[in-house]
Design brief:
By secondary structure, this protein is of the alpha+beta class. It has five helices and 16 strands.
């Protein structure tokens, strides 16, 4: 059984947030205000490092980066986001058959190699059935609006938001990301989707730590499964200056005008 918030060894955010190295590194950045239950396994990292362009060279959806940050834009100029100057964006090799052709896949990592978020487009994972007996309580402990393109999607349940959510299992399972999908009726759900509609050019887009959050049986948990014993523990864990940097990075995501339907 897992004790406290857990994360992958040296590869995922939750464990590394507690490390002094990440705390020291994040203190130099300018911070702004303040297997995964149905999601495909994380793609492997390639040796190629994507280029983060200066803000002045960016396309229309970009804004000038704040002090100590830089702007990343994909080669097709379909999306962009800000990240701390010392962090890197690396290409990921997508799992075959899970994503649409020519989709985008990136990991954002600290200099120590800690993955703070992954960005994926063209997500084709079908929604799993949710029998009434398998619905379980979920909780939203953080929710903030996203600008994206400034245009509401016709297919969205809600306006795009950055969210931190918990779903109940033998512990509270946690994930953060962006979504335009409501969790479920009466505060009950089987899974929680962390994706938004990116239009015809991008398809479903995720930017966070999990595409889909779902509770797991104890035997199916591992070092990358993030759980908490209480809602208060989760709230305290995410309510820190370290996590505020990640939150601001995710909230800075912009999708180029005209790509959404």
């Amino acid at each position: 059984m897992e004790h406290g918030p857990s994360g992958g060894p040296g590869g995922r955010l939750p464990q590394a947030l507690a490390a002094a190295a990440l705390t020291l590194m994040l203190a130099t950045a300018c911070t702004g205000p303040g297997g995964d239950g149905g999601a495909p396994s994380s793609p492997a990292t390639t040796a190629v490092t994507a280029t983060a362009e200066p803000a002045e060279a960016a396309a229309a959806p970009l804004r000038e980066a704040r002090e100590g940050w830089k702007v990343f834009t994909d080669p097709g100029r379909l999306l962009s986001f800000e990240l701390p100057e010392a962090w890197v964006v690396q290409l990921l090799e997508p799992e075959p058959g899970v994503y649409a052709p020519d989709s985008l896949h990136y990991a954002v990592r600290t200099p120590e190699g800690v993955t703070t978020a992954e960005l994926h487009t063209g997500i084709q994972t079908p929604e799993a059935p949710c029998p009434e007996a398998e619905r379980t309580p979920y909780y939203v402990i953080g929710s903030e609006p996203l600008e994206l393109t400034g245009e509401a999607s016709a297919d969205a349940d809600v306006e795009p938001r950055f969210v931190i959510r918990l779903i109940t299992g033998f512990r509270f399972f946690a994930a953060y990301g962006i979504t335009d999908q409501a969790g479920g009726a009466d505060g009950l759900a089987c899974t929680l989707s962390n994706t938004v509609d990116g239009g015809d050019a991008l398809g479903r887009v995720s930017f966070g730590d999990l595409e889909v959050l779902a509770p797991k049986a104890p035997a199916n948990t591992g070092p990358q499964t993030v759980t908490f014993g209480t809602i208060g523990e989760a709230q305290a864990f995410y309510d820190t200056p370290d996590f505020a940097t990640i939150r601001e990075m995710l909230r800075s995501l912009r999708i180029a005008p005209g790509t959404t339907g």
